[in-house]
Amino acid sequence: MAIEPLNYLTPCLGRTFYKRDTNEVAKSLLGKIFVRKLALNGRIIRLAGYIIETEAYGYRDDPASHAFNGPRQRNSMMFGEVGFLYVYFLYGKHFCANVTARKNDARAGAVLIRSILPLTGQDIMSKMRNHSSNLTIGPGRVTEAMSISMAHNGLDVTQETSCISIHQGLDIDDIITSARIGISKANDRPWRYIAARFVSCLKLQNSVNNLFKLHC
DNA sequence: CGCTCGATATTCT
DNA sequence: GAATATCGAGCGA
Questions:
Q1: Å from A12 (CA) to B3 (C1')?
Q2: Continuous segment of H or E residues that includes residue A144
Q3: What's the confidence (pLDDT) of residue A205?
Q4: Is nucleic acid strand B under 7 Å from A92's C-beta?
Q5: Which CATH superfamily includes the segment(s) A15-172?
Q6: For chain A, which residues make up each domain, given as ranges?
Q7: A89 touches strand B (CB under 7 A)
Q8: From the CA of A1, how many Å to the C1' of B9?
Q9: A159-164 average pLDDT score
Q10: N or C of chain A: less Cβ packing under 10 Å?
Q11: What's A160's DSSP letter?
Protein backbone atom coordinates (compact mmCIF):
# COMPACT_ATOMS: atom_id res chain seq x y z
CA MET A 1 0.00 0.00 0.00
CA ALA A 2 1.49 3.30 -1.10
CA ILE A 3 0.91 6.27 1.16
CA GLU A 4 1.50 9.64 -0.41
CA PRO A 5 3.85 11.87 1.58
CA LEU A 6 2.20 14.96 3.01
CA ASN A 7 3.64 17.94 1.15
CA TYR A 8 0.95 20.44 1.97
CA LEU A 9 -1.47 21.13 4.76
CA THR A 10 -5.19 20.65 4.23
CA PRO A 11 -7.61 22.95 6.11
CA CYS A 12 -8.44 22.28 9.77
CA LEU A 13 -11.73 20.63 10.60
CA GLY A 14 -14.01 23.29 12.10
CA ARG A 15 -15.96 23.35 15.35
CA THR A 16 -19.17 21.98 13.81
CA PHE A 17 -17.40 18.78 12.81
CA TYR A 18 -17.17 17.86 16.50
CA LYS A 19 -20.65 19.06 17.44
CA ARG A 20 -22.29 15.76 16.50
CA ASP A 21 -22.97 12.43 18.15
CA THR A 22 -19.67 11.24 19.65
CA ASN A 23 -19.79 7.91 17.82
CA GLU A 24 -20.42 9.66 14.49
CA VAL A 25 -17.40 11.88 15.08
CA ALA A 26 -15.30 8.84 16.04
CA LYS A 27 -16.16 7.28 12.67
CA SER A 28 -15.66 10.52 10.74
CA LEU A 29 -12.22 11.07 12.25
CA LEU A 30 -10.92 7.97 10.47
CA GLY A 31 -8.73 9.08 7.57
CA LYS A 32 -8.39 12.64 8.88
CA ILE A 33 -4.89 14.03 9.36
CA PHE A 34 -3.54 14.45 12.88
CA VAL A 35 -0.82 17.10 12.90
CA ARG A 36 1.73 17.88 15.60
CA LYS A 37 4.08 20.84 15.27
CA LEU A 38 7.20 20.53 17.36
CA ALA A 39 10.16 22.83 18.04
CA LEU A 40 13.32 20.80 17.57
CA ASN A 41 16.87 22.12 17.31
CA GLY A 42 15.58 25.60 16.60
CA ARG A 43 13.24 24.60 13.78
CA ILE A 44 9.58 23.73 13.57
CA ILE A 45 9.10 20.07 12.68
CA ARG A 46 5.76 18.80 11.47
CA LEU A 47 4.64 15.28 12.39
CA ALA A 48 1.48 14.02 10.72
CA GLY A 49 -0.50 10.86 10.12
CA TYR A 50 -3.89 9.51 9.12
CA ILE A 51 -6.10 8.60 12.04
CA ILE A 52 -6.90 4.91 11.54
CA GLU A 53 -8.33 3.74 14.88
CA THR A 54 -10.63 5.55 17.34
CA GLU A 55 -12.98 4.88 20.25
CA ALA A 56 -16.00 6.86 21.47
CA TYR A 57 -16.61 7.59 25.16
CA GLY A 58 -19.86 9.05 26.48
CA TYR A 59 -21.37 10.22 29.75
CA ARG A 60 -24.05 8.70 31.98
CA ASP A 61 -24.84 6.16 29.29
CA ASP A 62 -21.29 4.82 29.40
CA PRO A 63 -19.85 3.25 32.59
CA ALA A 64 -16.45 2.93 30.86
CA SER A 65 -16.18 6.69 30.34
CA HIS A 66 -14.12 8.94 32.57
CA ALA A 67 -17.13 11.27 32.51
CA PHE A 68 -19.51 8.64 33.95
CA ASN A 69 -19.28 9.89 37.55
CA GLY A 70 -19.70 13.52 36.60
CA PRO A 71 -17.25 16.41 36.25
CA ARG A 72 -13.93 16.09 38.06
CA GLN A 73 -10.62 17.87 37.74
CA ARG A 74 -9.19 15.24 35.40
CA ASN A 75 -12.17 14.91 33.05
CA SER A 76 -13.24 18.56 32.94
CA MET A 77 -12.38 18.84 29.25
CA MET A 78 -14.97 16.17 28.44
CA PHE A 79 -17.65 18.55 29.73
CA GLY A 80 -16.32 21.59 27.89
CA GLU A 81 -16.51 22.89 24.33
CA VAL A 82 -16.01 20.38 21.50
CA GLY A 83 -12.90 20.25 19.34
CA PHE A 84 -10.46 20.44 22.23
CA LEU A 85 -7.84 17.98 23.41
CA TYR A 86 -8.46 15.85 26.51
CA VAL A 87 -5.19 14.25 27.65
CA TYR A 88 -4.88 12.00 30.68
CA PHE A 89 -2.16 9.99 32.39
CA LEU A 90 -2.63 6.25 32.71
CA TYR A 91 -0.97 3.32 34.48
CA GLY A 92 1.66 5.64 35.85
CA LYS A 93 3.43 5.68 32.49
CA HIS A 94 1.34 6.62 29.48
CA PHE A 95 -0.61 9.54 28.10
CA CYS A 96 -3.77 9.13 26.04
CA ALA A 97 -5.11 11.80 23.68
CA ASN A 98 -8.81 12.39 23.04
CA VAL A 99 -10.75 15.04 21.15
CA THR A 100 -13.92 16.32 22.78
CA ALA A 101 -17.03 15.73 20.69
CA ARG A 102 -20.75 15.56 21.41
CA LYS A 103 -24.15 16.75 20.34
CA ASN A 104 -25.53 19.93 21.85
CA ASP A 105 -27.87 17.97 24.11
CA ALA A 106 -25.17 15.60 25.43
CA ARG A 107 -23.24 16.82 28.46
CA ALA A 108 -19.91 15.08 27.86
CA GLY A 109 -18.07 13.04 25.27
CA ALA A 110 -14.69 12.44 23.68
CA VAL A 111 -12.98 10.35 21.01
CA LEU A 112 -9.80 8.46 21.91
CA ILE A 113 -7.14 8.54 19.19
CA ARG A 114 -5.89 4.95 19.32
CA SER A 115 -3.73 4.70 16.21
CA ILE A 116 -2.40 6.75 13.33
CA LEU A 117 -0.52 5.94 10.14
CA PRO A 118 2.56 8.19 9.83
CA LEU A 119 2.66 10.52 6.80
CA THR A 120 5.52 12.85 7.71
CA GLY A 121 8.19 12.85 10.39
CA GLN A 122 8.38 9.12 10.82
CA ASP A 123 12.10 9.38 11.60
CA ILE A 124 11.36 11.79 14.45
CA MET A 125 8.59 9.55 15.77
CA SER A 126 11.01 6.67 15.78
CA LYS A 127 13.47 8.71 17.85
CA MET A 128 10.75 9.78 20.28
CA ARG A 129 9.66 6.20 20.77
CA ASN A 130 13.15 4.72 20.74
CA HIS A 131 11.67 1.85 18.77
CA SER A 132 11.58 0.94 15.11
CA SER A 133 8.24 -0.90 15.03
CA ASN A 134 4.73 -0.19 16.25
CA LEU A 135 5.47 3.50 16.23
CA THR A 136 1.92 4.81 16.39
CA ILE A 137 -0.34 1.79 16.95
CA GLY A 138 -1.97 2.15 20.36
CA PRO A 139 -2.94 5.31 22.29
CA GLY A 140 0.17 5.38 24.48
CA ARG A 141 2.39 5.00 21.45
CA VAL A 142 0.66 7.79 19.51
CA THR A 143 1.33 10.27 22.31
CA GLU A 144 4.90 9.11 22.83
CA ALA A 145 5.74 9.25 19.10
CA MET A 146 4.26 12.74 18.84
CA SER A 147 5.55 13.98 22.17
CA ILE A 148 2.12 14.70 23.64
CA SER A 149 1.69 15.06 27.41
CA MET A 150 -0.48 16.74 30.03
CA ALA A 151 0.89 20.09 28.85
CA HIS A 152 -1.35 19.69 25.79
CA ASN A 153 -4.57 19.08 27.68
CA GLY A 154 -7.08 21.72 26.63
CA LEU A 155 -5.57 22.63 23.24
CA ASP A 156 -7.96 23.70 20.50
CA VAL A 157 -7.44 21.28 17.60
CA THR A 158 -9.57 23.38 15.22
CA GLN A 159 -6.92 26.10 15.09
CA GLU A 160 -4.14 25.87 12.57
CA THR A 161 -1.94 27.82 15.00
CA SER A 162 -2.23 25.13 17.70
CA CYS A 163 0.73 22.79 17.98
CA ILE A 164 -1.78 19.95 17.64
CA SER A 165 -4.52 20.18 15.01
CA ILE A 166 -6.72 17.90 12.90
CA HIS A 167 -7.11 18.44 9.19
CA GLN A 168 -9.16 17.27 6.24
CA GLY A 169 -7.96 14.00 4.77
CA LEU A 170 -9.62 10.92 3.40
CA ASP A 171 -13.33 10.24 3.62
CA ILE A 172 -13.45 6.69 4.95
CA ASP A 173 -16.57 4.59 4.56
CA ASP A 174 -14.98 1.15 4.92
CA ILE A 175 -15.21 0.95 8.70
CA ILE A 176 -14.72 -2.02 11.00
CA THR A 177 -16.55 -1.82 14.31
CA SER A 178 -15.69 -3.70 17.51
CA ALA A 179 -15.83 -3.57 21.28
CA ARG A 180 -13.47 -1.12 22.92
CA ILE A 181 -10.07 -2.30 24.11
CA GLY A 182 -8.71 -2.46 27.64
CA ILE A 183 -11.93 -1.76 29.55
CA SER A 184 -13.83 -4.00 31.94
CA LYS A 185 -17.16 -2.15 31.91
CA ALA A 186 -19.63 -1.68 29.06
CA ASN A 187 -17.85 -4.24 26.90
CA ASP A 188 -21.08 -4.79 25.01
CA ARG A 189 -20.84 -1.49 23.16
CA PRO A 190 -19.22 -1.60 19.71
CA TRP A 191 -17.74 1.87 19.95
CA ARG A 192 -14.31 1.16 18.51
CA TYR A 193 -13.73 2.09 14.86
CA ILE A 194 -11.02 1.08 12.41
CA ALA A 195 -10.41 2.17 8.81
CA ALA A 196 -10.70 -1.20 7.07
CA ARG A 197 -8.35 -0.28 4.24
CA PHE A 198 -5.56 0.21 6.80
CA VAL A 199 -6.32 -2.83 8.91
CA SER A 200 -3.15 -4.56 7.76
CA CYS A 201 -1.15 -1.87 9.55
CA LEU A 202 -2.81 -2.82 12.83
CA LYS A 203 -2.50 -6.55 12.46
CA LEU A 204 1.18 -6.42 13.32
CA GLN A 205 0.27 -5.33 16.80
CA ASN A 206 -0.70 -8.16 19.15
CA SER A 207 -3.28 -6.29 21.20
CA VAL A 208 -5.30 -5.69 18.09
CA ASN A 209 -6.22 -9.31 17.69
CA ASN A 210 -9.35 -8.56 19.64
CA LEU A 211 -10.30 -6.84 16.43
CA PHE A 212 -12.23 -9.76 15.11
CA LYS A 213 -13.97 -10.76 18.30
CA LEU A 214 -17.09 -8.89 17.42
CA HIS A 215 -16.93 -8.56 13.66
CA CYS A 216 -15.50 -10.39 10.65
C1' DC B 1 3.13 -16.00 16.70
C1' DG B 2 0.46 -15.77 21.23
C1' DC B 3 0.11 -15.54 26.14
C1' DT B 4 1.40 -13.85 30.90
C1' DC B 5 3.04 -10.58 33.91
C1' DG B 6 5.24 -6.45 36.11
C1' DA B 7 5.76 -1.49 36.10
C1' DT B 8 4.05 2.65 38.09
C1' DA B 9 0.94 7.08 39.52
C1' DT B 10 -3.57 8.80 39.61
C1' DT B 11 -8.37 8.01 40.67
C1' DC B 12 -12.04 5.57 42.73
C1' DT B 13 -14.39 2.77 46.61
C1' DG C 1 -6.87 -0.94 49.13
C1' DA C 2 -8.27 -1.86 44.24
C1' DA C 3 -8.71 -0.60 39.59
C1' DT C 4 -6.94 1.48 35.55
C1' DA C 5 -9.39 3.88 27.92
C1' DT C 6 -1.22 0.52 28.40
C1' DC C 7 3.17 -1.23 26.94
C1' DG C 8 6.96 -4.30 26.29
C1' DA C 9 9.87 -7.99 28.01
C1' DG C 10 10.06 -12.75 28.56
C1' DC C 11 8.60 -17.19 27.67
C1' DG C 12 6.91 -21.33 25.09
C1' DA C 13 5.54 -23.35 20.76
A1: 42
A2: helix A139-145
A3: 52
A4: yes
A5: Methylpurine-DNA glycosylase (MPG) (3.10.300.10)
A6: 15-172
A7: yes
A8: 40
A9: 97
A10: N
A11: T
